[in-house]
């Protein structure tokens, strides 16, 4: 993995973690708001419920998208390795050599 790819992966993980925290906090606020009486709070509860639902859908969509990309990448990698075994072996040896050189520093 390149440094940029690793940073993107870490960024995605951070976004997912932040969304999970936001979702948990929103659910807690909704639970607390349900116990408070009042006319204005009904509108707040509705908006909060809509917000929680949209965050849940966004997280589910992100998870499904990530799973699809992972499956696609693994199928494509396997297909390439099966079609080009010697080239794959050469690439793996080259990457191993470069990593060995970097680790020796």
TrEMBL record:
GO annotation, cellular component aspect: plasma membrane
Give GO terms: molecular function aspect only: ribosome binding
Q: How does it sit in the membrane?
A: Single-pass membrane protein
Which residue spans adopt a coiled-coil conformation according to this UniProt entry? none
Describe the location of the DUF883 domain by residue ranges: 13-64, 77-105
Q: State the InterPro entries in the record.
A: DUF883_C, DUF883_N, YqjD/ElaB
Q: Name one Pfam family in it.
A: DUF883
Family assignment from sequence similarity: Belongs to the ElaB/YgaM/YqjD family.
Name of this chain's protein: Transmembrane protein
Q: Where does this protein come from, organism-wise? A: Paraburkholderia phymatum (strain DSM 17167 / CIP 108236 / LMG 21445 / STM815) (Burkholderia phymatum)
Q: What is the lineage of its organism?
A: Bacteria, Pseudomonadati, Pseudomonadota, Betaproteobacteria, Burkholderiales
């Amino acid at each position: 993995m390149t440094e940029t790819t690793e940073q993107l992966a870490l960024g995605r993980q951070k976004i997912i973690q932040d969304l999970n925290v936001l979702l948990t906090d929103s659910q807690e606020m909704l639970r607390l708001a349900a116990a408070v009486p009042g006319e204005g709070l009904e509108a707040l509860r509705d908006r909060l419920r809509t917000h929680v639902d949209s965050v849940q859908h966004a997280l589910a969509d992100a998870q499904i998208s990530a799973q699809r990309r992972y499956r696609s990448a693994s199928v494509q990698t396997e297909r390439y390795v099966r079609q080009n075994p010697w080239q794959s072996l050469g690439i793996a040896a080259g990457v191993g050599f470069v990593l060995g050189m970097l680790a020796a520093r």
